[in-house]
Amino acid sequence: MTNADTDASNASLPSREFFERGDLTFGVVGLGYVGLPLAIEVAGSGIRTIGFDVVPAVVDGVNQGRSHIQDVPGASVSKMREEGLLEATAEMARLAECDVISICVPTPLGKTRDPDISYILQAGQAIADTLRPGQLIVLESTTYPGTTREVLLPLFEERGLEVGREFFLCFSPERVDPGNEVWQTRNTPKVLGGITPACVAAGEAAYRRFIDTIVPVSSPEAAELVKILENTFRAVNIALVNETAQIADRLGVDIWEVIEAAATKPFGFMKFTPGPGLGGHCIPVDPHYLSWKMRTLDFRTRFIELASEINAEMPRFVVQKVREALNAGRKAVNGSRILILGVAYKPNIDDVRESPAIDILHELEREGADVRYHDPYVPEVRDQGTIWRGVELNDETMAWADLVVLVTDHRDFDLEWIFDRSPVLVDSRNATGGIANVRGEGQPQRWIVKTGTTPSAGTGEEQ
Prior knowledge:
16 helices; alpha/beta; five-stranded mixed β-sheet; Rossmann fold; disordered N terminus; eight-stranded mixed β-sheet; single chain; 2 domains
């Protein structure tokens, strides 16, 4: 680039005022659980938005006004399409049209629990191929500290542009909580760290147009570590309460009674509850990004590794409760008919990523059980070559079952109906604990909240 070229490009560079009030085109790379809600929020603020995705069905669906994400109503997509504020494309060359580009691609773990940043690399290369002066790029995908500076920045600098002057680069971690009806994209505070102060200024100016609160930090590394700290905090505390639940079980103490009593302390205690294990795209995955990074620096993240080990044991703990419940009725797991209620990783959503229910399904089938499941949000589950299809939840299904396991406590479930019709109920969430207490059941095994004998075929009633 000649001096004349540099002067000309500098003259055309957008100012902070352009990002604050200018006629922006905003690009979102990856239209999944993070990208589509972001694209809808941006478009809803009146900014022209282009969504990029490599899946033709996703692109076609958005362009036809449909949503493939549970938290995004189809009506919202249709409205933005009708107003000409949103479109989707698989043509990465159109990234050149965008003044701001947000990268919202998946960051899974490999089989050895090493970070798989291949999607970030692909997105980064596509942006680098079309990078022009004045663009702001923001990585939102969760990753290890150093990714923005060490992976993306060199790709963009190869274009001969100077960061902080000719283009701007930030990291701003996504904080999506699927199924949360209170905290959405706009009202969830957004952390943002840039390579230079000018990058932060550009990022703040652009994102304030559709986010209520921006929290600037000193660097991309700080912002990257914020996200991992948030989810590691949850993973470690969940592991603590899961281990305490196993301790309480050995002691014959009701863990939920203990937690509720501890939660009355007005300071120094935060309530976490035990369950069948961790699931979702964040908490079981994100801490391992930090573990991997620190291994490269010869540092062992002991809390993270221990928490992961404890949480991974919980599906087996639930299966053990199933064994105990069946044994009490002189039955074995082998040959028993077991109904799983809920396979999503958390209530009221359709996401089964890393769901502990899948581990429970596999384990029970390995032990010879005839296993079926019902989930109002998940009609089918595919994992490791196995396909399970959900069944209806009705009197016939409940009469079929020797034992019911409540794994995910969806609000759609009529808990009293489930309690009344379950011959034996293993409740991993204590969702029916209050009913059990009123009915005087659930003693002494607190995870098995209802015991009984196997019902007669087709009656649905206890003998």
